[in-house]
Structures are given as C-alpha cells and as structure tokens.
Amino acid sequence: MDCRQLPLKILIGLAATVLGIILVVGLNPRHSLFTNKVNRLTDGPGLRFRKYGIACTKPFDVPLDAASVMPDGPPGFSMEIAFTSHHQGNSRFGILFMFHDGDDDAQLLMGQWRNHIVVMNGDDFDYSRKAPRVSTDLSELPQAPVVVTVTTDGEGTRLYLNGRRVDENRRLTLSFPGGGRSSALVMGNSVYGNIVWEGEIHGFAVYPHALAAADVSKHYAEWLENRDFSHALTAAPSMLYLFDGRPGAPVLDRSGRGRHLEVPTRMTVLKRQFLIFSPTDFSLRSAFIQDVVVNFVGFVPFGLVFTLLFRRGPLRIQRHAIAFAVILGFAVSLAIEIGQAWIPSRSSSLLDLIMNTAGTGTGAMIHGFFCRETPFVSDAPL
Prior knowledge:
Layout: H1 8-27, E1 38-40, E2 47-49, E3 55-56, H2 66-69, E4 77-85, E5 94-100, E6 108-113, E7 116-121, E8 134-137, E9 146-153, E10 156-161, E11 164-169, E12 184-187, E13 199-207, H3 213-226, E14 239-241, H4 286-297, H5 300-310, H6 315-318, H7 321-340, H8 350-370
Antiparallel strand pairs: 1-2, 2-13, 3-12, 4-9, 4-13, 5-6, 5-12, 6-7, 7-8, 9-10, 10-11, 13-14
Helix pairs in contact: 1-5, 4-8, 5-7, 5-8, 7-8
C-alpha cells in the first residue's frame, strides 16, 4: 500500500496520541508524588504503611553496635520489631526497615517476600547470589501483630519469632553500614522509594548487645502484657520508638539520642538512581520477561508512526526517516528514564532504554514491509 495516501492530519493525530500514551504510562507517578501513605494508628501505638509510604531519620554518625558503644563489652547487637503485615502473598520484595549509608552492598535490612521475613546485609533480594541471611515464614500465623527479634555476634545470627528461635546462621554476623559515612534508618520502603512494604509497625528497638534467649522471651511476654515497647526503656537501647505520639509529629527516639523518625507529608526519594543496570537483573522470572516485552512492544507503534510522519517531511528528512524515528524514540525514552529517577515507585533503567530504542527501530523497519516506496516528494517546502 502507498502510505503517503494517509491524510497528514490523521498521521499527526496518531503520532500525538502514541507519544501521549507513552509519556503517561512512562511517567505515571501513581499519586506517589503527592501524599505519603503513612498514618498513625488510632487504636494503639504504631504507624500504618500503605503503598508508596515512607518514614525515615536524618543521617546520623553514632554507631549502634557494641564494638563501638562498649569496646570492652560483649560484641554484637540486637534488633526488635513488632508489626502486623499486610504484605502476605506479594511477589515483590518489600522492606520493613533498613539502615543505609549510600552503599547498597552494606545496607542492613529486614524485608518480606510473600510470607517470608528476611534479614540480611546487601541487596540480594531474590537470593540469586546466595548471600547469607536468616528468615522465617509467617504463613502459619493469623494476620495479627508479631514480634521479630534478631541477635548477632561472633557466634552467628539468630532470628526469633514471638519469643521463639526459628532460624540461626552461624556463618553470618550482621553489621551496621558505616565506613565513615552517615547512615539513616528508613521504614516501610527503600531509600529509592520503590521497594514498598504494606502493614503496621507498632514498636522498634536496637540494643548495642546480643540479647540472650531468655531476654528475648521475657521481652515478648512483656509485649503481650502491655502491647507496647516500654520494656525496652530499661534495656539500654541505642534506638527506641514507641510510636505513641500525636499525628503529624515526629516519632520520638526514646533512647535519648535524638534519632527521631520523621514522616514527610509528601512521598520522598532519599537517593536517586539513573539508568541502573546489573547483569544479575536478567532472569526467566515472569515479572522480568513481562517488563522486557512491555518496554519493547510499547515503542513499536512509536517507531512505525513517526517513520510514516517523517516520510512526509522535507526531502532531506524523508531520506533518513528511519534514523530520525530511532533517534527520537531514544530521546523520548531517555527523558522518561531520567524523569523516573525523580518519581517514587519508578525505576530509571538502562535496560528499559535499550528495549524502548529497539522497539522503535523495529517499528520503523516494519514500515518497509507494508508501505510501498514512492519517489521522494515533499509535503513541506524545502
């Protein structure tokens, strides 16, 4: 068929529609640019985290482990958290809390994948690198508050669920990030704003020593009795949040060290990523394959329509219509990926840029399969 018979106004309309759809889909912030989805509970202490929520401290320099706080005392530290999860069954990894100093490999976190609670250093979320961790399964428990305690020292790391030891890794000693840089505590999300967890956090404490099993059991019994973390006040915590303040106010650090937890009014990205790429991202998981296909196929109409449009331009543009379409597709995709670095819930990906550009090129080449070539006659003045 002779595609030059298509009315120019219709072609311009198609190009504008395709471009508009791509921009809306690519930059859709899903409301996360506006309201931070974190609220105080009204029926007890705690914060409720919904999708696209975050709470965080300002960066702090004081170490939290025994080696720094009490050099002559026993090594190690403990973390204790009470929460109600609404993340069960979610195939995407979500972060309950993390300590981050700018280095993903050093970050210390507790996260959830489906029904599994995971504690580790680093960013091996899908366990593809087999990084050491401790974990437990919540699937046998009702959807109610649970208390998870982690203790680590020179003898390994132990994980307790409701006062009972459920996992141990003698080859793993957890560590807080630092290395001369300031760290921040982030809850309900990552520093990038795109690894969300949904649920309620009722209490959180860090101790500069490894709790004994009897202490863990005692703390859980006191939690059952009082339904708060007031028991930690007498256990020399390095950080302590009771989540008992008024709405709109920071969550106070009751350890007295001033590392208060803030809930921004708007969803906040603490660290931005531009065109990230890692060979470990490649997998046969359905989510990865779907993402690749969508980014490729989504730009095929763009390449086709804009090649047709450039074929109707001045003679010097007609001759290089495919090249112009591919360059424009690359530029639009690059702008979207840069914009996504500023939008919570989105990720700026080099692979997406590559697949978008490849899709544009494929759409431009499709033009030659069903559009009969005609002599270059410009619709526009030279």
